[in-house]
Amino acid sequence: MRIVLPTLLTAAMALAQAAPAPDDDPDEKTRYLLGASLTVGPEYDGASRQRVRIKPVWAAKLGRFRITTSGGSALLGFGRESAGAGASTQLLKGEKWRLGLSLRIDSGRDSGDARTTRGLPDVRRTLRARLYANYSLAPDWNLGASLSQDVLGRQGGLTAGLDLGWRFYRSAETEWTAGLGVSAADARNLRSYYGVPAAAATDTGLPAYEPGAGLRGAHFGVNFKHALGKHWFVFGGAGTSRLLGPAADSPLVQRPGGSTAAVGVAWRN
């Protein structure tokens, strides 16, 4: 599985060089956004304890290039493209489909962040490359797929996702969307985040566990955006998720299902 993403990236870059650049849209000017959100959710997927976080939200876009935190892309108004966090560019664009590539920093995991992971090896910070594709099934329905690879060869491994999004309400000031999806990962990723090495079993009191590749989880969520004026708006959402396959079988999992909620405010030009 390690050779899948590099092969696709090579093909995508070749297509991007061969194809003409997408036509400029009337609103393809420089755009940026600054904000913050208050989020409540599990310490990690599978944990029973909840954690409250204040997270910065920002994004910037120049033509088909952008750099953004998680969630910032959708708030600028191009969330249907699902570029994700980090620096990204649109490689190809058709009438109903888009293909793009993004890079982001993956913070990994500090085993001391949660009581149940203490004594396990840390997952090192790394750089991830993500190849994503989106297809518009209808004006308010979007299907997305992605592959994300740890390009530094650390413990991040390869992950894949398939998502379906639906915009079920839109007015001049307010937008409501819903989405559901499923994710999978290779053995390296699942062993890093849900495995228990034999050497750490004694220290943690957990049984040794070495998962293989398989499904990672499923999720569903509802989100909203509401404009307070020309530049200011509020946003938020709630979601639920459930671990599947080898991840759900991990001894680190205290609760396979979890929920999150967030609310925030932002300014954009």
UniProtKB/TrEMBL annotation:
It is found in: Cell outer membrane. The keyword Repressor does not apply. Its main location: membrane. The keyword Ion transport does not apply. Residues 1-18 form the signal peptide. Keywords: Cell outer membrane, Membrane, Signal. Belongs to the MipA/OmpV family. PANTHER family: MLTA-INTERACTING PROTEIN-RELATED. This is MipA/OmpV family protein.
